[in-house]
Amino acid sequence: MEIKLWVSLIVVSAIMTSALGEFGGPLVKGFYKESCPLAEEIVKHNVEVAVLKDPRMAASLLRLQFHDCFVLGCDASVLLDTHGDILSEKQATPNVNSLRGFEVIDYIKYLLEEACPLTVSCSDIITMAARDSVFLRGGPWWEVYLGRRDSLKASFAGANQYIPAPNTSLEGLIVNFKQQGLDIQDLIALSGAHTIGKARCLSFKQRIVQPNMLQTFYVDEFKRHSTFRRILRSQCKDSSRDNELSPLDLQTPAYFDNHYYINLLKGRGLLISDNVLVSEDHEGEVFKKVWEYAVDQDLFFVDFVESMLKMSNINVLTGVQGEIRGNCRFVNI
């Protein structure tokens, strides 16, 4: 495991200078070097403790950044509770009874407030926690740009509109990512986050009943895909099991690797929105990249980091915009 982690570091270091320069924008490296020098270490240590207690938490913290950035931007709006005029994004359909990790962020924020009051933003905590979660599961490490500030509002409607559903078509995904300034390669690379984590039966019920030819790019001669669906069907027999969980990557569910793409080529992506990367790609551009990632994990890691840097810069608040919240769940009084 240790060797694998160091290989990840070496792979990504080759692109860090150019990628950070391109996607940093108004954010900077070492933003808290003077104002809160232990900020990144505090985040890293407590993410590690949380993931040791609950390995699934790594995927949850990574997902938290996706669900934050895709609504108003990377501004920690997803962390706000319903209060006053604010209707929490946590209650939106893609998030309710699904999004996790809020208590981990709360505790990290508490420690940072003790060390450096009103200095480290909740949005930067999300960004650091997502990076550390990927690394702790065997994925790449990258240096994050920091200096984000926190929003003064949430968007319940935006969370319902802009976070892709698990049954979204390929065309829908492309449009959705384009709205965030992300391209097709970003879509394919960031979809690889589904190499860790789990999904509820409710999220992939439609996947169970879809015909073979909608799932794969070739005839299922050996019934591998119908067998896969039978496995899923046994886990999700009826509506009483809607909240039962299944790994997004059945092969290596605990590791951040390229098996997600290998699974797609075998017709074994859990969600419909995973499988459409190969089943609805009529031009072949997406399938070609899926194949490249399936055979070259290092390439996937490099592109994943680049796309994460790009995503984490969506509509960020900096300077005097927004605020630094004292409590991530509420705007300051």
From TrEMBL:
Positions of Ca(2+) 2 binding: T195, D249, T252, D257
* Gene Ontology CC terms, in alphabetical order: extracellular region
**Which GO molecular function terms does the record list?**
heme binding; lactoperoxidase activity; metal ion binding
Write down the PANTHER family for this protein, in alphabetical order.
Answer: PEROXIDASE 20, PEROXIDASE 72-RELATED
Q: What is this protein called?
A: Peroxidase
Cofactors: Ca(2+); heme b
Q: How is the cofactor bound?
A: Binds 2 calcium ions per subunit. Binds 1 heme b (iron(II)-protoporphyrin IX) group per subunit.
Which class of enzymes does this protein belong to?
oxidoreductase
* Cysteines engaged in disulfide bonds, as pairs: C36-C116, C69-C74, C122-C328, C201-C236
Q: PROSITE patterns this protein is in?
A: PEROXIDASE_1, PEROXIDASE_2, PEROXIDASE_4
Residues annotated as catalytic:
H67
Endpoints of the signal sequence: 1-21
* Residues annotated for substrate binding in this entry: P164
* Gene it is expressed from: LOC108813836
Residues under site feature: Transition state stabilizer: R63
Q: Report the EC code(s) recorded for this entry.
A: 1.11.1.7
Question: Residue limits of the Plant heme peroxidase family profile domain?
Answer: 26-332
List UniProt keywords, sorted A-Z: Calcium, Disulfide bond, Glycoprotein, Heme, Hydrogen peroxide, Iron, Metal-binding, Oxidoreductase, Peroxidase, Secreted, Signal
Biological role stated in the UniProt entry:
Removal of H(2)O(2), oxidation of toxic reductants, biosynthesis and degradation of lignin, suberization, auxin catabolism, response to environmental stresses such as wounding, pathogen attack and oxidative stress. These functions might be dependent on each isozyme/isoform in each plant tissue.
Record GO biological process = hydrogen peroxide catabolic process; response to oxidative stress
**Which residues are Ca(2+) 1-binding?**
D68, V71, G73, D75, S77, E89
Reaction catalysed? 2 a phenolic donor + H2O2 = 2 a phenolic radical donor + 2 H2O
Residues where heme b binds: H194
> Which family does the record claim for this protein?
Belongs to the peroxidase family. Ascorbate peroxidase subfamily. Belongs to the peroxidase family. Classical plant (class III) peroxidase subfamily.
Q: Give the matching Pfam families.
A: peroxidase
Subcellular location(s) per record: Secreted
